[in-house]
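Subject: Interface between my chains keeps coming out wrong

I've been trying for a while to get a sensible model of this assembly. When I model each chain on its own everything looks fine, but I need the whole thing in one frame so I can look at the contacts. Pasting all components below, labels as-is. Any help appreciated, I'm running out of ideas.
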Amino acid sequence: MEATLPTKKEHPRWRELKFTLYRIFRNPSAILGFSLLLFFLGVAVAAPHLAPPKFEHAPYQMPHKGYSPTPKPPSAANIFGTSSGQYDIYYGIVWGARTAFKIGLFVVGFAGIIGISLGVIAGYFGGWFDELLMRFVDIVWSIPLLVLAMTIVVAFGRGLENIMLALALVEWRWYVRVIRSEVIKLRGQEFVEAAKLMGVSDIKIIFRHILPNSIYPVLIMASMDMGSMVISASFMSFVGLGAPKGYADWGQMVALARNYIVGPPDDPLKFWYTIFFPGISIILFVLAWNLIGDALRDAFDPKLRRR
Amino acid sequence: MTAYIIRRLLFLIFVLFGVSVLIFGLLMTFSPERRAAVYVTTPQQAKDIPKLVKQYGLNDPVPIQYARWVKEVASGNLGWSLVAARPVAKAFWSYFPTTLELNLLASPLVIIVGIWLGTLAGVHRDTWIDHGTRIGAIVGWSLPTFLFALVLLMIFYGYYGLFPPGIISSDTSLWVINNPDKFTRYTGMYTIDGILNGHLWVTWDALNHLVLPVLTQVIVVVALLMRVMRSGMLEELSRDYVITAKAKGADAHTINIKHARKNALIPVITVAGQLVALSMEGSIAVEVVFSRQGMGWWLAHSATQLDMPVLMSVCMFIGVVFVLSNLIIDIMYAYIDPRIQLQ
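Reply #2:
Try treating it as a single job with all components included. I did that and got this:
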């Protein structure tokens, strides 16, 4: 009886996602950011082919011929040159990309999971748990990230794993605060009240209604964090709290370059390659995530969204 | 207002207690022998370690050790710094002025430049000024402080021979040490001491060493301020009172500077705490790279040499500074925006 027009009925969530993606990729900074990210991802994935490891069991160990402290300029054998200790810079850059992804994904993932789960529970249920958690966050909040993370690394012992763990153990406080305030805003809204009245369980409300509506600010933060955590980790490596010498890690490669930033008086920029390649890798890697985060912020901003 | 401040100061005590427990707990992850090694200064004393463990009660239950440590700290004994080869409390006073000097010069610049550029970008929305500052902010945000500092050092010191690293040139420092009657170290900051003693060339020398550190600090910290200022301006410029002012015939300058900018400053104050934290972190990297013996340098070197007493004291100190500065920020907040009631 009813003559319906053959319209394609899309699920509203799918439509919203498509609109968001359209908004993200309309932004040139997102395109640049994602291209850079894809490039680094390609390098990290193809590392065994781009720079075959000398020893299968220790691929992150940079190969070096000899122990001469003086860096050697780019040549056919070492296309980016060698740094102090004759470590091959090209090899370090390629495998360092894997290290950077490892650091970023581990720290942000770990901090994000702890922060989001604690923050949602505290924000949704409130009560003594919320009070206790937030006072604890107040305490850890009073020490800047780098200072507290360095102290934790000292207590746990040097090494890249401990740097990652320390950063995650400090950074979760941001996620708790951000998601908790979002959840509190949502908690009292009508659609949540309605779901409650209909007898939907708390777990279902959290996963169906609370999380999807509060996750965007966390996503933006996570993207920016991928970059800033790599910066913090590379600084700690640079200071000497990181992996043993020769590990493919961009921060440590900058440390190897440190004594050679000023060359001999007749050619002060002689050793430019020792700092240029690891330095530009860190900057571009961080820039990629920041550009993406910036584009996400614009795309999710409700004030700008439907204009 | 007074009640609020008192409550916040009580909160400070709570936070300090929490931080001390946290840091002390981290220290307890070390074995008693390892902690005893802190008291050992010569290789011959190494065999005394078991004796030291007993003498200092390092095997006692944790709460007793904590109480003993708090008592020591309260009486002004913060422990011995390996890096400084001096008691922590004494070393503190030689390192703190260097960091203060850096931030006293950098902070006003950060505030002025950040507010100015942020306003400019907001007023000239979607023009090349706006895009330029936005790109600048993202790139600045992506620059690791230590790397940027190294590059500056490479270009200016390495290539042009300008702005050497360190706090002051060795000649000047020698002269200061050899002429204690002519040069009194009132503040520990060479720039100010130079003026106070009437030796302006010392100030000039110190400033020469400060150019690159201050530049690094400003560029790394200013990005955040600029971005918040810009979005604040955008928000204010779309408000009704701006339209009213326009309708009444106010010129653009009055609207932007007298009306919008004043209101756009309010969100800036909310990130002021973050700016303080950024400056603290920035100081660590700046001091390490430019080998300026300040708090950040001390902290980084203590970390690499497992100098736990220093790390604990510095954490406590930074906690106090941070919580106090947040209190000041909140009071300023209420002062600038009368709609906010502190309670």
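Reply #3:
Confirming on my end. The CA atoms of residues 118 and 230 of chain B lie 4 Å apart.
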